[in-house]
């Protein structure tokens, strides 16, 4: 090997080395920027959840057991909680689709200016406190509330309907709160549907209904799926509205967790509930991401 | 003809769609409007529309020491949360945007975890974590917990600002001799400052409106406004809450408008 090529080789080595060292320093700097946020998330979310998981593996006497999980299949009250939770989640998700799809469709068809004005009515509730909106529905739906007093004044009914403090109150309140979570991603995905596809369909002789059914609707399905998944998942862990509007009769998963831990101080049982809730949530989101290759958290960045 | 899509369907043929969409919009907005109107009622009964108007519920709100203390706690916590979450979230978004780290996907998932993990689980977990270290019922504890919940919103908002910014500009500045900090501060920052402001506003409102975690970790002197409202609603429907709710709605409207104005200028 000549002296010259040896020099080139070693210079190349040196260069590669210093480049690698530079890249490593750069990565460290970026990690340093991330570290405070990651530390906080780790300390407030990951550590307590791990701790709760550990706790859920022990029974009340402090022995390692599956008692906390076995209870879910044995005690009727737990089974009833799960049935209620899934029932509410299915009804609310269905209602959100029925109300949200036409709204998103209308928004996607309106001229830009009109659409952005209408969008304010979707985004404003999205950023209004859940508590405020639940209170509003309590006022509207309770025994002496607006709906009942109007219907009685109009002579439609003689006895007040029981709309709050039961399942229907919970469903109405939750549908109102979760509707924007369906409309926003659905609208965003409908906006990306190419108008040329629709025009081409109509040129080829399809009527408006056929164009919608065969072209627009299939193209809007990914957006709809993302909205459905996020609404369903949020339903499963919803606390405020069922706690305030359920009248103590509608016990959902999150309320059950609060009761077992604060009321009965049974941390193992509450922790087990939380672990299963988290696993179901992550499984649903994971399934969605695997099937569609998109993140369901898009709703928060699609504004 | 619809001007955006240009399909041969007239607005008239679409009337049913507009009617349906309008009804859903009404469903979304009516509760807030009803509460705002009712908060000016003179009656202890919740009538709509009110027979007589007055500001008595606002007076009750502002004169009650309990409500005033709770409001002050919430404002303090929200301001501190904003001051902590905004720089942390901006730094994190900057690092994620470089996209050179191997675990970028995992980091992203971790930082947005608090949007996905059921809030009730975060509440119970935080209470459990704080109990041995004495952070329950403290402002510090509330600020830390709220910061974690506000972080993903700051990160996502700033990230979307950075996506439309050309990082080469910062490289140019550095090749011309600016240091790292100077390059960021003088070149990048002015161009993404509107997303940072939006992120900060979202952080503020996230903290101010937060209910579930505060239920577990606030109490006594540090009872937040939302926690006090939640407890009051469990007992009875007090019209004072209509006045408080109106203030919260106005706050949301103001912060959102500011965010929108800043967003448009971006």
TrEMBL record, chain A:
Residues 82-288 form the ABC transmembrane type-1 domain. Belongs to the binding-protein-dependent transport system permease family. CysTW subfamily. This is Putative spermidine/putrescine transport system permease protein/spermidine/putrescine transport system permease protein. It is a multi-pass membrane protein. It is found in: Cell membrane. Its main location: membrane. One of its GO terms (cellular component) is plasma membrane. The keyword Transmembrane applies. It comes from Mesorhizobium sangaii. SUPFAM superfamilies: MetI-like (SSF161098). The keyword Membrane applies. Signal peptide: none annotated. Keywords: Cell membrane, Membrane, Transmembrane, Transmembrane helix, Transport. CDD domains: TM_PBP2.
From TrEMBL, chain B:
One of its GO terms (biological process) is transmembrane transport. GO terms for cellular component: plasma membrane. Keywords: Cell inner membrane, Cell membrane, Membrane, Transmembrane, Transmembrane helix, Transport. Residues 71-259 form the ABC transmembrane type-1 domain. Pfam families: BPD_transp_1. The chain crosses the membrane at residues 15-40, 77-97, 109-133, 139-162, 194-220, 240-262. It is found in: Cell inner membrane; Cell membrane. It is a multi-pass membrane protein. PROSITE patterns: ABC_TM1 (PS50928). Its main location: membrane. SUPFAM superfamilies: MetI-like. The keyword Nucleotide-binding does not apply. Belongs to the binding-protein-dependent transport system permease family. This is Putative spermidine/putrescine transport system permease protein. It comes from Mesorhizobium sangaii. The lineage of its organism: Bacteria, Pseudomonadati, Pseudomonadota, Alphaproteobacteria, Hyphomicrobiales.
């Amino acid at each position: 090997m000549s002296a010259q090529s040896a020099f080139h080789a070693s210079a190349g080595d040196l260069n590669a080395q210093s480049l690698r060292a530079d890249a490593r320093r750069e990565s460290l700097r970026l990690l340093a920027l991330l570290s405070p946020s990651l530390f906080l998330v780790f300390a407030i979310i990951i550590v307590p959840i791990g701790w709760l998981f550990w706790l859920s593996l022990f029974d009340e006497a402090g022995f390692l057991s599956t008692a906390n999980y076995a209870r879910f299949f044995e005690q009727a009250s737990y089974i009833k909680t799960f049935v209620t939770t899934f029932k509410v989640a299915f009804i609310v998700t269905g209602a959100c689709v029925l109300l949200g799809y036409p709204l998103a469709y209308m928004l996607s068809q309106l001229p830009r200016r009109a659409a952005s004005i209408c969008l304010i009515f979707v985004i404003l509730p999205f950023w209004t406190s859940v508590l405020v909106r639940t209170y509003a529905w309590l006022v509207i739906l309770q025994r002496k509330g607006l709906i009942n007093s109007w219907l009685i004044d109009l002579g439609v009914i003689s006895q007040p309907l029981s709309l709050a403090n039961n399942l229907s109150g919970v469903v109405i309140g939750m549908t109102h709160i979760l509707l924007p979570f369906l409309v926003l991603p659905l609208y965003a995905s409908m906006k990306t549907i190419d108008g040329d596809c629709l025009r081409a369909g109509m040129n080829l002789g399809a009527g408006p209904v056929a164009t919608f059914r065969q072209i627009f609707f299939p193209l809007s399905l990914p957006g709809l799926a993302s909205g459905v998944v996020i609404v369903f998942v949020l339903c499963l862990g919803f606390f405020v509205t069922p706690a305030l509007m359920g009248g103590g009769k509608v016990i959902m998963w999150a309320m059950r967790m609060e009761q077992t831990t604060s009321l009965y101080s049974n941390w193992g049982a509450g922790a087990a509930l939380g672990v299963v809730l988290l696993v179901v949530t992550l499984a649903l989101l994971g399934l969605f991401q695997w099937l569609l290759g998109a993140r369901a958290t898009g709703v928060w960045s699609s504004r | 003809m619809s001007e955006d899509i240009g399909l041969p369907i007239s607005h008239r043929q679409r009337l049913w769609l507009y009617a349906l969409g309008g009804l859903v919009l009404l469903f979304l907005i009516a509760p807030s409007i009803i509460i705002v109107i009712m908060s000016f009622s003179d009656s202890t009964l919740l009538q709509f529309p009110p027979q007589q108007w007055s500001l008595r519920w606002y007076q009750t709100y502002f004169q009650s020491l309990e409500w005033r203390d709770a409001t002050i706690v919430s404002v303090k916590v929200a301001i501190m949360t904003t001051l902590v979450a905004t720089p942390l979230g901006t730094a994190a978004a900057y690092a994620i945007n470089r996209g050179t780290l191997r675990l970028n996907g995992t980091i992203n998932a971790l930082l947005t975890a608090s949007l996905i993990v059921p809030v009730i689980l975060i509440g119970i977990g935080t209470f459990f974590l704080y109990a041995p270290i004495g952070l329950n019922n403290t402002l510090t504890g509330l600020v830390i917990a709220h910061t974690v919940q506000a972080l993903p919103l700051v990160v996502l908002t700033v990230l979307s600002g950075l996506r439309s910014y050309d990082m080469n500009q910062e490289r140019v500045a550095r090749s011309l001799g600016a240091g790292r900090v100077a390059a960021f501060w003088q070149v990048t920052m002015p161009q993404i400052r509107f997303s940072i402001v939006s992120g900060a506003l979202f952080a503020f409102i996230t903290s101010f409106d937060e209910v579930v975690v505060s239920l577990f970790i606030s109490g006594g002197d540090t009872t937040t406004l939302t926690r006090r409202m939640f407890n009051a609603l469990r007992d009875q429907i007090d019209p004072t809450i209509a006045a408080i709710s109106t203030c919260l709605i106005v706050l949301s409207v103001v912060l959102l408008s500011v965010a929108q104005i800043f967003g448009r200028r971006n």
